[in-house]
Write a structure and sequence with these properties.
Layout (H helix, E strand, L loop, with lengths): L5 E5 L11 H14 L4 E7 L10 E2 L4 E5 L2 E5 L1 E5 L6 E5 L2 H4 L15 H19 L5 E5 L5 H7 L11 E6 L7 E3 L19 E2 L2 E3 H8 L2 E4 L2 H6 L10 H6 L4 E3 L27 H14 L9 E5 L8 H11 L5 E5 L4 H13 L4 E4 L4 H10 L2 E4 L9 H7 L3 E5 L2 H6 L13 E3 L4 H17 L1 H12 L5 H20 L6
Parallel strand pairs: 1-2, 1-8, 2-7, 8-9, 9-13, 13-14, 15-16, 15-18, 16-17, 18-19, 19-20
Antiparallel strand pairs: 3-6, 4-5, 6-7, 10-12, 11-12
Helix pairs in contact: 1-16, 3-4, 4-5, 8-11, 9-14
The chain binds adenosine-5'-diphosphate.
Length: about 500
């Protein structure tokens, strides 16, 4: 039996243990799919308040993590990813992680976030040494783990961990981990690493920059986003640097949890369906119209939208287009929380357009499922979208996405072709209320005038493969390439 490739994931959130966004879903699911490819995969994360502390096994001894103020000693607890033998090591250090939020109250970061995630990054390497687990690949995710590739190249110099290839995955470049340059001492790295070739970026300490400079290879969560972040429009100031590593930058589309998001088995739905039998979808639509307090009419097109109310998701553009959209014979339900101004506007619109627009301003997973199932169309007018999950859920539920042509939306939705009836959704390029409204108008007219095209698109949409199995084999190729780059020879499987 050949030795398996050893992979350590470091992440600040892992589903189902702690989640604020798509990152948690990736790190909750990808290791499972890699395990099925016979890799020795392990995961490290912080132990936060609200996690099932007592269900986790406490490891013997304490982990010692060098911090700027001295040696921090913390416990390590171990759980497993559900239905797998993949260990999840949770670093316990209550001073840093036993708090109400992962990163800080809404809209704000904790002032000691640099210190907190230094503990995670440095601690994950110390844990490897304590366990005698020397990974071939260390897979780091977003800025909270950005110091790991830097440590591997510096403090681990000529140590066993120096042989590990590092992958740095960008899940959202808008969050880079930017701190005052004077805080460099917190990282434990010498001031000599505060330079434009490593951690300094326009006069600040930038963990993402350090990670891009020091990692063996860089990845992001869709091929289109990988290209976009090398441009000024999407690069958030790091486009030049990413362009300089363009041969080492790979975009791999996220998968989705096809068990949780399966219209044939979904327990959140009033009726279930699949592409061979769509009657259940009609039942879901009627139930959603009822839930929204709309007239229950199978003939009217029902649009759904679910997501964080932030400028990333283009909710401001939707707000400006709303009046035009609702002047047609169409219905729209919205589920989301976020920006207080956006919430106020949609609450007003809910009262104003009561029989055709409903805004639920809360987080409600069951309702998200019912919208995906019951709607005919799903809106995502994103300003930028590294990958996006909702459009993949809607495709699987036969709910045609209306999306802006950006990031992962380009890689997952194909635009409707009126001539052939081809495609799986409706796309627009300009981030402008008129473009959004026109494209929704296009979907509405297709609904009324070419229902056979809508039926064909639905079947095509539902047949797409967004499983993690596909993504996992792309990551395996990436790991093997990184291994060879780091060691100078191929991995001997
Ligand atoms: P992002 O990670 O940028 O927020 P994604 O489309 O990748 O966007 O994933 C968002 C996930 O969060 C989806 O699973 C979506 O259904 C869920 N979600 C977002 N807002 C809500 C909400 N208010 N209620 C229920 N689920 C939500």
């Amino acid at each position: 039996m050949p030795a398996p490739l050893k992979v350590l994931f470091v992440s600040s959130e892992v589903a189902p243990f702690a989640k604020t966004g798509g990152l948690a879903d990736v790190v909750g699911a990808l290791p499972k799919a890699l395990r099925a490819l016979n890799m020795d995969v392990r995961v490290v994360m912080p132990l936060y308040a609200g996690m099932p502390w007592n269900d986790l096994e406490v490891l013997d001894g304490l982990l010692t993590v060098p911090m700027w103020w001295g040696a921090a000693r913390g416990r390590v607890r171990v759980g497993r990813l559900p239905e797998t033998d993949v260990p999840v090591y949770c670093l316990e250090y209550n001073r840093y992680f036993d708090r109400p939020y992962l990163y800080g109250p809404p809209g704000d970061g904790y002032p000691d976030n640099l210190e907190r995630f230094t503990y995670l990054s440095r601690g994950s390497l110390e844990l490897c040494k304590a366990l005698g687990f020397f990974p071939d690949i260390i897979h780091c995710n977003d800025w909270q783990t950005g110091l790991v590739p830097v440590y591997v190249n510096t403090v681990e110099w000529l140590q066993p961990l120096h042989g590990a290839a590092t992958i740095y995955s960008i899940h959202n470049l808008a969050y880079q981990g930017i701190f005052d340059g004077n805080a460099m001492f917190v990282t434990g790295l010498g001031r000599e690493h505060y330079n434009p070739g490593e951690l300094e970026h326009f006069g600040a300490l930038n963990l993402t920059k350090g990670a891009i400079q020091h990692s063996t290879l860089v990845s992001t969560v869709s091929p289109t986003y990988a290209r976009e972040i090398q441009t000024g429009e999407y690069g958030c100031g790091l486009d030049g640097l990413l362009g300089s590593r363009s041969h080492d930058l790979v975009g791999i589309l996220n998968g989705i949890d096809t068990d949780e998001w399966n219209p044939a088995t979904d327990p959140h739905l009033p009726a279930r369906f699949d592409s061979a039998n769509m009657e259940g979808k009609a039942t879901c639509k009627a139930a959603l119209q009822k839930e929204a307090g709309f007239p229950v009419r199978p003939d009217v097109p029902l649009f759904g939208v679910v997501g964080r109310l932030t400028s990333q998701k283009g909710f401001d553009v939707l707000a400006h287009a709303l009046h035009r959209i609702l002047s047609w014979d169409a219905q729209l339900v919205l589920l989301g929380t976020g920006d207080p101004d956006a919430e106020r506007f949609f609450a007003w619109a809910d009262a104003h357009y009561g029989d055709r627009f409903r805004a639920w301003l809360r987080f409600d997973n069951g309702r998200a499922h019912r919208i995906e199932a019951g709607a005919d169309f799903f809106l995502m007018p994103s300003r930028f979208e590294p990958c996006g999950l909702n459009q993949m859920y809607s495709l699987r539920y036969g709910t045609l996405p209306v999306v802006r042509a950006t990031g992962g939306l380009v890689d997952t939705v194909s635009n409707y072709d009126e001539g052939t009836g081809g495609g799986t959704g409706f796309m627009f390029a300009d981030l402008h209320p008129d473009s959004l409204a026109n494209t929704i108008g296009w979907a509405v007219s297709t609904w009324f005038d070419r229902p056979d095209h809508i039926r064909g698109m639905r079947h095509r949409a539902m047949a797409q493969d967004f499983s993690w199995t596909r993504a996992a084999s792309a990551y395996r190729d990436l790991y093997l390439r990184a291994y060879e780059r780091r060691r100078g020879h191929a991995f001997a499987a």
